[in-house]
């Protein structure tokens, strides 16, 4: 109606300011005021329409709540609270917000993963529409396999601040995980590809720049697979715990130069009557067990806390992917992409937001208690009773009732066997972790595998050949540095006053640019004085050189 057009942009670095861009540069009236603003008495029409500010964060929060099935009235309440932080309270805004939430809910409910009947064509269309969320894409051809790397803007942010196969899927799914401030596993990228050969994997690992940091090796996959199949294929619980204990001892003896092949063969012969498990182990693990154990010796071993976090992500992933009645969905890549980028992504976004903003208390509490490690921290020491005589088992009283007790066999080992329902499904239960926490403080118990792994790496550095003095010095320096860090962490955890610990730490210089002085230190030599005539002469020389350039 006014015949003019302008755009208002909120400045990212200065959120309290706005930038107004006019199509016509001179857009003022005779009085010098901006045309059509409240001071322009000659303006005609109903006036500019006010629209509430909805940032990407507000939109993502609203979408996450809708995807998680939170009732619409609760979503609207939180949505209006977020808008009022920027725009204040306004009845008109509340009406527009209600309309926005309702329309967004309808869009999400009507959205579908199937953009085309052909799965490959559907994926191409999704990639074209979501280029900002793709860090690597390679279409399938006669020479190259299909590779799709997904990383949203929020996932990239989480990766900058801070690999699983799923059966029955059309292609294996790999997840890049980082650990947040609570040591929970956070997915920061997903990779979908049928190829696991080194040449193809290096393409997306280089695109992510993944391995420019220390690498830890986790035994979670091996432990989970062995425990699940022991329980599934052996009916007797005593046989189950003995097989699992023997397998754990074989892994633990890796650092003692024990012949793994001979030990495995002896184990199989001792339980030869368990044909179902023996057949599974021979076909699935014998061809690659040497590779696993060699890797175990080559890298530091991740702790039980890391294993619990990885398991929590895996459980949540399986729950989201299995909770779908769509027939044949698992065989379509577009369905998998849709599930990852909507429901699973929204779950983790809302979890992190609830934790950081201290809102959605039920979501926050569920998120904190999602790992077995954090659930183990809730078990008091008084609930654990260790077998004093032979240290064969431990009893853990359930928090649900003192009459319920779980027995953990092989206490102190990552291959502890518990008779609780969660453990019998092949999971790393809180009872095993709690018992192992207690055993870590008992000198009579063997150290954990992660402690043993770390100690072996230190000893390996220490045993470098004497004739190579440079490598020896470097190894000694690394060893002492790691030991100092461990001592500081132990002191920090056991101290009630962090100030005492900080004061005892050695002085650490920051970078040269970050150093600031009040005045000139007395120990520094004075700078030579420069006369005014010398400065003028230098300026003239600089101007002449500039003209020549």
UniProtKB/TrEMBL annotation:
Region (Disordered), start-end ranges: 529-549
Which residue intervals are annotated with compositional bias (Basic residues) in the record? 540-549
PANTHER family given in the database record: OS09G0309100 PROTEIN (PTHR33977:SF2), ZINC ION BINDING PROTEIN (PTHR33977)
What name does this protein carry?
SWIM-type domain-containing protein
Species assigned in the record: Gossypium tomentosum (Hawaiian cotton)
